[in-house]
Amino acid sequence: MLKPAEGPTIVAILGENPVVGNALESLLRSTDFAARFFPEYLPNSAEPFEGALVALILPALSSKRNEALIAGIRSHPATVDLPVIELITTPNGGPHEHTCLPWPCGLEELKRSIEAALPHGSSSQL
Fold it and tell me: How do residues 9-39 score in pLDDT, each as one tens digit?
């Protein structure tokens, strides 16, 4: 279950590329988001993303890898309703139950997408 934000919005950054993940973490922190890069998804944890209100999925070499990651997020009781933003480098067709954002994109566009994905009533201190 999602928790109300107390302070900056927590963004979980998920993906295989630590260079991109750590760079996005630093960029988002400079905008007052409390971002954290997770190099792997830990489905056996009671709170896999430590209270994150949004999950940001990095582009992957395989779209099947991201599909499996999103399915894992949707199957965990603590993250079943977690808004997901998937960064994509090529159109991957079809409707999605999550937001897809073309990558690379500017920081302002990324911030707007995160803010739009927040659950109603949650806000960051931007």
Answer: 899 999 989 999 999 999 999 998 999 999 8
The answer to whether 52 touches 12, Cβ cutoff 8 Å, is: yes
Q: Which two tokens stand for residue 73?
A: 């997020």
Residues 111-124 have pLDDT tens digits of: 999 999 997 655 54
Supply the pTM of this predicted model: 0.85
Q: Is 112:84 a contact under the CB 8 Å cutoff?
A: no
Tokens at 103, concatenated:
């990558």
Structure tokens at 50: 């430590």
- The angle, 0 to 180 degrees and rounded to 10, between the axes of the packed helices 18-29 and 107-117 is 80
Helix (H) / strand (E) containing 74:
helix 63-75
CA distances, 81 to each of 49, 72, 98, 119 (Å): 13, 12, 10, 9
**Structure tokens of 44?**
């056996």
* Percentage of the chain lying above the pLDDT 70 cut: 87
Single-letter code of the amino acid located at 14: L
Q: Is the peptide bond before 43 cis (omega within 30 degrees of 0)?
A: no
